[in-house]
Design goal:
The chain contains 4 helices and 24 strands. With 377 residues, the chain is of the alpha+beta class.
Length: 377
């Protein structure tokens, strides 16, 4: 091959120097020029072919080793990441409407109870005594009223006596109804079915309407509440896709925004969002922290690793791709337009096609136009 190359160079020199320019006619000189250019082009083509053959046979030449990565086409998603807290609508501390001494506690912590079930009984002996006393008075008042009513119908006695007997009876009936209501309030009753999570006082302790007695929970329906900055108000809507991850229990749930607040908190310029979540296994507890991801961008297109993006001196983003030219792997620089970035992936809105192959490992060591070797390692 070296002999062929030497021969071609010698021919070129002979053609260039051997034919002296003896004619001064412009037309003849131009003709000679065209002839020489044609010969040079022909020799350059032959030289290129020979260089390619030399490159294939020259084992001493070392090419840069790179790995390749096919361009992936798919659905790109970008999320807003914030933190939320689990809450439950049925999570209450039951307080008595009236003060009193704890007489009996009918349930235990962790026990499942039904709606309407009596949980705690306050001492109602004084109320019961008052009810018994009023019952006696009411019986007398009813007897008096019945007699006055019969006499009044017979036009015997005064109307005032009849009205006084009626008023006395009705007043005692109203007082008795009030006492019976107070007696019912001395019982702490479950307003809904759930689990007794905590009992605060002990038997015999004195309570007041400001003192909680029982914490009652129902975890069948829970939700995550989070504050979202007002910047995302045009994006976050009811029905927006959301993903919840609970690090403490290593659980992930896909859901949607169920409700957004209509009030912007002036302290942190945010609004509240609510995401309802299923809780059949009851593993999700109130006040459990959740990592919340809310979808704010979605598009179908080319997705590539962010580590492959480079930037030139003009600030243009680019990647290196591989193209096969004359049975050789050549590095090609391609300018790209970045649409969005999330989780170490880039959505490329322009500059790459689905059939392109990216230079992966070694992308920082090559340059445009360089011939490389592909390795699978």
């Amino acid at each position: 091959m070296k002999k062929i190359l030497t021969l071609l160079i010698a021919i070129s020199i002979t053609v260039s120097c051997g034919e002296a320019v003896k004619k001064s006619s412009l037309e003849e000189l131009n003709t000679q020029k065209l002839t020489l250019v044609s010969k040079i082009d022909s020799l350059n083509k032959e030289l290129k072919t020979i260089e390619q053959e030399i490159s294939k046979l020259d084992t001493s030449k070392k090419l840069q080793l790179v790995t390749i990565l096919p361009v992936r086409k798919g659905t790109f998603k970008h999320y807003v990441e914030i933190q939320g807290v689990v809450k439950a609508d049925k999570n209450i501390e039951i307080k008595p409407e009236l003060g009193g001494t704890i007489k009996a506690i009918y349930v235990k912590e962790g026990q499942r109870v039904s709606s309407g079930q009596t949980l705690v009984q306050l001492d109602d002996s004084s109320v019961k005594n008052s009810i018994a006393e009023l019952n006696t008075q009411l019986m007398l008042a009813k007897t008096t009223f019945d007699r006055q009513e019969r006499l009044w119908k017979q036009k015997i006695g005064s109307e005032m006596q009849y009205l006084q007997a009626k008023a006395q009876k009705e007043s005692l009936e109203n007082n008795l109804a009030t006492l019976r209501t107070q007696a019912r309030k001395m019982k702490i009753i479950a307003p809904f079915s759930g689990i007794v999570d905590e009992i605060f006082p002990k038997n015999g302790e004195l309570t007041s309407p400001q003192t909680p007695i029982v914490r009652l929970l129902n975890l069948s329906k829970v939700y995550v509440e989070a504050d979202v900055t007002e910047t995302y108000l045009p994006i976050v809507k009811t029905g927006t896709e959301a993903t919840l991850f609970f690090p403490s229990i290593n659980k992930e749930i896909h859901s949607k925004i169920a409700q957004i607040g209509n009030y912007i908190n002036p302290d942190n310029r945010s609004f509240k969002t609510r995401i309802n979540i299923p809780n059949k296994d009851k593993l999700i507890k109130p006040n459990l922290l959740a990592d919340l991801k809310i979808l704010d961008f979605k598009a179908d297109g080319i997705i590539i690793p962010s580590t492959l993006i480079q930037q030139d001196q003009n600030g243009n983003n680019y990647v290196f791709t591989i193209e096969t030219i004359d049975d050789e792997k050549k590095v090609v620089k391609k300018l790209i337009t970045i649409g969005n970035e999330y989780n170490h992936e880039i959505y490329v809105s322009d500059g790459l096609a689905e059939h392109d192959t990216l230079v992966n490992a070694g992308a920082r060591l090559v340059k445009a136009g360089e011939i490389v070797n592909i390795t699978n390692n």
